[in-house]
Structure formats: C-alpha cells, structure tokens
Amino acid sequence: MNKHILIVHAHPEPASLNGALKDAMHAHLLAQGHSVEVSDLYAMGWKAAVDAADFPQRDASARLRVPKDSHAAFAADALTADVRAEQDKLRRADALILQFPLWWYSMPAILKGWFDRVYSYGFGYGVGEHSERHWGDRYGEGTLAGKRALVSVTAGGWQPHYSPRGINGPIDDLLFPINHGLLHYPGFDVLPPYVVYRSDRVDAGQFAQARDGLLRRLDGLWSDAPIAYRRQNGGDYAVPSLELKPGREAGGERGFGLHVAPAA
C-alpha cells in the first residue's frame, strides 16, 4: 500500500552525509511508489525562534504569552503561513522521518525551532480533555496518533561512546527527549532510531553500508515493531500525579527505561 512520508532534514551542507542519506531515502521511497515531501530546513531558511511575529493577530500592547497566543492563533487559523504549511504536511503524512546530526547531545537548533513553532497549542499539545481523570490526549494519543516516526541521526563518536557504559551516555537515553517527548507525546508510534557513528570518518564503502542499512529500515517502516512506550492513558500511570503505578516496572529498572513497557 502506498504511503505518504514527510522527511524533515536539518543540515546546512547539501553535500554532507546527512544530505546524502536524505537524498537516498527520498529516491528509495519514490521508487517504491510512495509519495514524499521534504522539509529541508536550512534550504527553506526556516525561522527557528518563537516570537510575537508568530501570532500576527495578537494584541501587540499585551505581554507575549506563547501558549495563550499560540492557542488563540491556532483556533482562529491565524498562524503564519510557514507554520500552517508544515502542520498540513504532518496531517498528510503517514510517517515522519527526521534526518539530522547529533550536535551537543541534541538536534540542531533549527530543527528544535521547527518543533517549537509547528507544535502549536491545539496541534502539538493542549489536546483533549484535561481533568483529574484524563490529563489530555498525549503520550500515544493526540493529533498525530496512528502515524509512525523514525529518527535517523549521525554521531561523530564511536558506537561504544554511546553504549550503556559509554562516556556520552546510552544513545537511547540521549534520544529519549526526541523519541518520547517530541514524537510519542503527540501520538506517533516511534520506531527504534537509526544511528550512523563516526560520521566524520565515513569513506565510500562505509557510506554504502550506512545507506543500505537505512534503506532496509525504510522497508520496515510499517512492519517493524515500534518502541513500546507506555501510553499515558493506558492505565500504567496514576492520575493526576502521572507517576508510574507501583509494580509496573521490570525488576529494578529506573530512569527513562521505566516508560518502556517490559517485553511480554
């Protein structure tokens, strides 16, 4: 079945490893009969910072309150044209792929700014009933529920640097704020990330290996099992504290791993 995929790419150099991987994904998905949109943020000159200009109909004499002004602009269909265009791309997409380098333990600022602006109140958050019984439609529910997401990231360090005992910390922990906080939060089913290590030292043979591995991951975009993040409203969390209920963790587990359901 043909699908629609949105690739959001964040690297300033078109001839970079990230650019080459983005182009390979685009061509591969098209060859499979899918439709693809690409948001190349640097090429687009994407405005990363949220400010008063994002809400052109707000009262300019009032203090800027981003959630309140974002909510009003979204409800009135008065967000800026660039933000509305990206929201429409997300609505059309069956899957979202992020392609970016890991810079200072996170994503490039321009990509974070894409989320800051596109995930307006009423679209990315502030969705659903908010009460002491139901704390909003999020973490597995929300506007983007039923879609899939994949993070494809390059890292300069060696794979052992990002291992459970590695000095940089486990790669799954470093990407948790992205996979769980930015993708699972508004509803995506998030696939395990694809990571290319030692990205500044990739020769032609290593690039072919990295590219082919990524394309194999694309072939499983709808068949591979997503990360088993717990759903907020699935019964694992107490409301309204949203703490994991006693006895739900696997033996002795702590930290981010608590929010992944143990294998049956």
Structure, explained:
The chain has a single domain (4-227), classed as Flavodoxin domain (Rossmann fold). By secondary structure, it is an alpha/beta fold. The mean pLDDT is 94. The chain is built from 9 helices and 6 strands; from the N terminus they run βαβαααβαβααββαα. The two termini are 30 Å apart. The longest helix is centred in the last third of the chain and has 16 residues, at 204-219. It is globular. Strands 1, 2, 3, 4, 5 and 6 form a 6-stranded parallel sheet that branches. It has helices at residues 17-31, 41-44, 66-75, 81-92, 109-118, 171-174, 176-184, 204-219, 232-236; strands at 4-9, 35-40, 95-101, 148-154, 189-190, 194-196.
Task: Supply the number of helical segments.
Answer: 9
Overall average residue pLDDT: 94
Catalogue the unreliable spans: none
Work out the helicity level: 25-40%
Fold topology:
Elements: E1 4-9, H1 17-31, E2 35-40, H2 41-44, H3 66-75, H4 81-92, E3 95-101, H5 109-118, E4 148-154, H6 171-174, H7 176-184, E5 189-190, E6 194-196, H8 204-219, H9 232-236
Parallel strand pairs: 1-2, 1-3, 3-4, 4-5, 4-6
